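User: I'm putting together notes for a lab meeting next week and I want to include a structural view of one of the chains we've been expressing. I don't have a solved structure, so I'd like a prediction I can at least talk through. The sequence is below, exactly as it appears in our construct file.
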Amino acid sequence: MSWKADTEAALMIVKGKDGPPSLDEAARQLDVAVEDLDPDFGVVAIDPDRGLYSVRVDASKLGRGFEEGQGPFSDPDISPMR
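Assistant: Thanks for the context. Below is the predicted structure for the 82-residue chain, given as C-alpha cells.
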C-alpha cells in the first residue's frame, strides 16, 4: 500500500534510544508494515529527552495491546485559522 491522502490515520508514540527511530524501527515497534506509516509525516520528536517520538499510521492496520499512553491518538485535519 502506498500512503493516500484520504487514509484514516492515527498518531502513535514510538521510542528511540539514541535519537529518533527509523521508519523501519517504528513499524517494528507497532507491528505494522513500513508502508503503513506516512513517510511525509516521518518521525516527529515529542519528548526527545525521554526518547518519545510520533509517527502517523494507517489506523486500519493497528492491532491491540499497546502500552498506556502509546496511542492511538486521533489525527484531525489541522489548518490555519482565517
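A couple of points you could mention at the meeting. The chain has one helix and four strands. The chain has a mean pLDDT of 84.

User: Perfect, that's what I needed.
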